[in-house]
Amino acid sequence: MSGTLYGLGVGPGDPELLTLKAVRILQESTVIAYPAPEVGDSLARSIAAPHIPRGRIEIIVRTPLIPDTFPAYDVYDRYAEEIAGHLEQGRDVAVLCEGDPFLYGSFMYLFERLSARFEAQVVPGVSSLGACAAAAARPLVSRNQVLSVIPAPLPEEELEARLRAADAAALVKVGRHLPKVRGVLARLGLEAAADYVEHASMADQKVMALSDKDETPAPYFSMILVRAAEGAPS
C-alpha cells in the first residue's frame, strides 16, 4: 500500500501558528521534505523544528531562487521522483511549506507531479496575509470591499493599473521592488495610507507606516497593506 503525500502549511514564522492537524501529521509521518535555497538553511524547517520528532528521514528540496529561472522544473522533477520512491514503499511524506501550500507555495509543484499517482492531502496554514494584517492591527477588507493580492515583481505599469482598480491591496514579495512600489503608491496618493510589515510573526518582525520606512532594502518576506476608505452604507 502506498504512503500518503501531505502538503503542510507551517504558517508565517511563529512555530505556535502551526495547526493542530499539521503538528499531528508531522509526528506521524516517516519522511519530511522541505524547501531550501541552494545554500543555507530552510525557513520552513526552522518554523516546524519544535514539532519534528527525532529519527525522521529528511529530504532537503534545494531550488535556485533566481527570478528568471524559478520555478526550476527539472529540480522538482528530480525531487518528485525521490519522494515517489518513499511513497511507493508505503511511507507517508510530509512536505513543509511556509504560509499556506496553495498561496504562492512551492508545494504546488510537487503536488502537480505526484497527486495523480498517490493519495495527496493539503493541510492549509496561516498565510502571510493574515499574519501581516494581525501584526499591523488593521483589517484587510471590510463590508463589500475586494482584496487584491498583487506581486511586487510585476511591471510598474501593471502595478499601477491594478492598484488603481483595487479597494484594498496586499503587495507581496516586496524585497528589492520596494522603491518601485513606493513610487507607484506615491503617484496614486496611497503611500500615506499604507503599512509596511516584514517578517510577520517572527522574532525580528517590524511594523510601521510605509512613510516611516527608510531606504534600507526590504527582505523578501515583507508586505505592504493599503486600503481605501470604506464606502458609505447603501
Question: Could you outline the blueprint of secondary structure elements for this entry?
Answer:
Blueprint: E1 5-9, H1 20-28, E2 31-36, H2 43-48, E3 57-62, H3 73-88, E4 93-97, H4 107-114, E5 120-123, H5 128-136, E6 147-151, H6 156-164, E7 168-172, H7 178-187, E8 195-198, E9 206-209, E10 222-227
Name the CATH architecture of the largest domain: 3-Layer(aba) Sandwich
Q: Rough shape?
A: elongated
Report the major sheet: 5 strands, parallel
Straight-line distance between termini: 58 Å
**Cα Rg:** 19 Å
CATH superfamily placement of the largest domain: Tetrapyrrole methylase, N-terminal domain
Low-confidence stretches: none
Question: How much of the sequence is in beta strands?
Answer: 15-25%
Report helical residue fraction: 25-40%
Q: State the secondary-structure class.
A: alpha/beta
Count helical runs: 7
The helix-strand sequence is EHEHEHEHEHEHEHEEE
CATH topology description of the largest domain: Cobalt-precorrin-4 Transmethylase, domain 1
Per DSSP E runs of 2 or more residues, the count of β-strands stands at 10
CATH class of the largest domain: Alpha Beta
Quick check: average pLDDT?
94
* Number of separate domains: 2
